[in-house]
Structure formats: C-alpha cells, structure tokens
Write a structure and sequence with these properties.
2 copies of one chain form a homodimer. Chain A is of the alpha+beta class. Chain A contains 5 helices and 5 strands; from the N terminus they run αααββαβββα. Chain A folds into 2 domains: 69 residues, Orthogonal Bundle (Arc Repressor Mutant, subunit A); 47 residues, Ferric-uptake regulator, C-terminal dimerisarion domain (Dna Ligase, domain 1). In chain A, the strands form 2 sheets. The first copy, chain A, has a 3-stranded mixed beta sheet with strand order 4-3-5. In chain A, strands 1-2 form a two-stranded antiparallel sheet. In chain A, strand 1 and strand 2 form a beta hairpin. In chain A, helix 1 packs across helix 2 and helix 2 crosses helix 3. The interface between A and B is large, with 40 and 40 residues. The first copy, chain A, binds a DNA duplex through helix 3.
DNA sequence: CTAGTTGCAAAGCATTTGCCTGTGG
DNA sequence: CCACAGGCAAATGCTTTGCAACTAG
C-alpha cells in the first residue's frame, strides 16, 4: 500500500459508500462504475494489501465466502444480519444479554460472533 | 441412499466414533482404515446423499470449511464454542436473551447462529 | 527513471460431474 | 439381472500467481 491509484481509490470508495460488508465481486461491480477497466484480480490483490495495512477487516459468515468492511466500521463491536432472499449482509448494533451464562464451567470466553438470518426490509416488502 | 455399501458404512461409522463435526478429508482418513480403497469423491457423494436423507447435518463455522455431524447430534438447537488453542468445537446449550431486539425495524428474523470463542476447560488448565 | 500496480492468462485447490466399471439386493 | 454406487479423470468455480506493460511519485 505505497501508491495511490484510481483502482485502489475506487475500491475504498465502494466500501465507504456501502457501509456494510462486501464480497470481492460486489466490490468489483461497484468500483467498475468509477474505473470501468478494473479487474477482479486487482480487487483481490488490493484487498490483501488493505488487510495487511489494517485498513479493512474480514467478515466471515458461516458457510460463506469472506466479505470485507472498513476498519472504522469493524472497530466497533457489532453483529450481522444476512437476508435469505438477496443475500445482502447488514450490520447490526448491540448484543444480546446473557452470553456469558452459556459458557460451560471451566471455559473462558474471549469473544463471540452472532449472525441473524431472515428477510431484510427491502425483501420483506415484495 | 438406497443401498448399504462398505464405503457408506465406514463413513457413518467414522462420524459415530468421532462424535464431533468432521471435514471430508478427516472422514476419508478415518474411513480409509475400514475400506482402504475409498475415494474422496465417494466421501463427497456420500455426504451429499446423507444430507438429502437427513441423516447428517452441515456444521458451518465462520471462515472454516464445512463439517458434518450425525443428525442425532444436530437435532436439537444449540450453538458452538471454539477453543482458540486446540480448535476443538464444543456444543453449547441454550440461547442468549433479547436477540429479537437487535433486528432493525422492517426486518424479519428467521434464525440465528452464535459462536463463542475462548479457551476450553482442558486448555485453560495449562 | 523505477519500483509498485495492473491486466491477462495460467496455475492452484477444493469440490463436482461424466463416464464407465463394479456390486448389492 | 440392472439400477444404484464407486473410482478415476476431467471439469468447474473461486482465488492466487507469473509475467509483461503501465504509471505514480
């Protein structure tokens, strides 16, 4: 991450606009509106560089390809909602209570991931 | 799932012995002790058939390849605790309260996945 | 200039499919 | 018997890598 290029800017911009975790193909589609010639390979390589520079974080959902979000978003503890219909992943604020109570005796809890599934606002309308 | 074959029996037996979610390569390694000639393709195809017959269930953890466990284990709603040190995945009973309260207005909740991370009893000792 | 970046094509990997042989019932 | 199951090789889909051309600083 040493130079600033149009492709990199377009990728970062896509993540800023979306404000939700995006997959490489999603990033490509959005960035292509700024830089039509951009390539999927470039998206993957740029993601890798941004991860090393800790400017983005991976968002892994069970059974799905990794998505990515800006470090500024990832820094705040939050969870995710995945729409069954459109597969879009939304950020969700807050935590349920009583997670500590689930931990078996003798185990030590460090962190947790919660993923909600259902239909999003858009898809619920149709 | 119409016939009983040595390969299928070996695969089911491997899952019974392990009593924890296994990946296809893990299943292959174990089943190969009963049926040395068994092939990875057969493992994948048998998994597919067992899934359709609802005799096993997929266990997907964020960022990890899918694993499978017997339906008898998967039947009741539970979550998972993954040890940071030994990577073992434990079943956890119960659910935290107030999950519904996290859902944004207009969204409809269908289900959820919770994964706890930390150190298990064994690893906490050392 | 010149080293970091990009684009294209090819390589890797895990998983799936095609096709033909083997076998359970 | 013969349709389902298995084995091998090839195909697939997503991600990474090799390499020559491009470009930011």
């Amino acid at each position: 991450m040493q130079r600033s290029t149009r492709q990199q800017d377009a990728i970062i911009h896509a993540l800023q606009k979306a404000a939700r975790p995006m997959s490489p193909p999603e990033i490509l589609a959005d960035a292509a509106r700024d830089v039509p010639a951009i390539n999927l390979t470039t998206v993957y390589r740029t993601i890798k560089r941004l991860l090393e520079a800790e400017r983005i974080s991976p968002v892994a959902l069970p059974g799905e390809a990794p998505r990515y979000e800006l470090q500024s978003v990832a820094a705040h503890h939050h969870h995710h909602f995945r729409c069954d219909r459109c597969s879009t992943v939304y950020d969700v604020e807050g935590c349920p209570a009583g997670i500590g109570g689930l931990v078996p005796r003798g185990f030590r809890l460090r962190s947790h991931d919660l993923v909600l599934y259902g239909t999003c606002k858009e898809c619920s309308r149709n």
